[in-house]
Design a protein that fits this description.
α1 crosses α2, α4 runs parallel beside α8 and α5 runs antiparallel to α8. The protein has 248 residues and is an all-alpha fold. Helix content is 71%, strand content 0%. The protein is built from 11 helices and no strands.
Length: 248
């Protein structure tokens, strides 16, 4: 291994240590407690060395978020490669995201925070682009299933681009994650099974698009069977807890 390759490897290994230390600090002390100097100290480096990797705390947050995105992408890959109907796979994306949110609540809190204007605008263009690229496969896979649905006659796109037809599901799922993580907001209305409600609304949305085969949006037994099938066939490593009724 040449000198340049060795330096590049050392740089990458050091950056990974910084990311791990920052993520640990967030988990232990909360997102808003993150400070650059303690992260550097935890890795036995000077703060200036940390700034050689990340120009600001906002850049560091973007990098953590980008790294965690791969786990979310992997769950979507399971869905897009599933040998089920296009509608079941579209529904499966929402279930996969729901399961990922339950396993990784800190990721969604961080993602919400990073996309606020004050953080996003303070991050460097390079780190913003890194985060966007890390999440790009999510939209690409959803677009693939929508295009397949149009091609096989499950869905009439009415001349619309694939992700124009997927934006409603994106908004619905993202909005529910935000509400779930805002403690007390749903509880004051006695909405104690938010993800079950989300999936009911998703079925109604897909019905409204004319996506075949249609489903009874409020048939809870059928909905639970579909969720159980997705969990069993795609994510058997997860616990048998009822994800459709899990609020947090």
């Amino acid at each position: 291994m040449g000198t340049q390759e060795r330096k590049q490897r050392q740089f990458a290994e050091r950056e990974q240590r910084f990311l791990d230390a920052a993520r640990a600090q967030i988990c232990e002390q909360g997102l808003l407690s993150l400070q650059m100097a303690p992260v550097a100290r935890a890795c036995d480096y000077a703060t200036g060395t940390l700034y050689q990797h990340f120009a600001s705390k906002e850049d560091l947050l973007c990098a953590i978020c980008a790294e965690m995105a791969e786990k979310r992408v992997e769950k979507f890959r399971n869905v897009v490669n599933w040998g089920a109907s296009t509608r079941e796979r579209m529904f499966g994306f929402a279930v996969a995201d729901m399961l990922f949110a339950r396993e990784n609540p800190e990721h969604f809190r961080l993602h919400q925070y990073v996309l606020t204007e004050v953080v996003w605008q303070a991050a460097s263009p390079r780190r913003r682009e890194q985060l966007l690229e890390a999440n790009r496969p999510l939209g690409d896979m959803v677009g693939t299933v929508i295009a397949e649905a149009v091609a096989c006659g499950d869905l009439d796109n009415r001349g619309r681009a694939p992700l124009e037809l997927g934006i409603g599901q994106w908004c619905l799922v993202t909005g529910m994650h935000n509400l779930v993580h805002a403690q007390g907001v749903l509880e004051i209305y006695n909405l104690n099974e938010p993800y079950r409600l989300m999936l009911q609304q998703l079925n109604a949305l897909l019905n409204g698009l004319g996506w075949q085969p249609t489903a009874d949006s409020f048939d809870d037994a059928a909905l639970q069977r579909t969720v159980d099938r997705i969990r069993t066939e795609l994510f058997p490593e997860l616990c048998p807890q009822d994800p459709a009724g899990t609020a947090h």
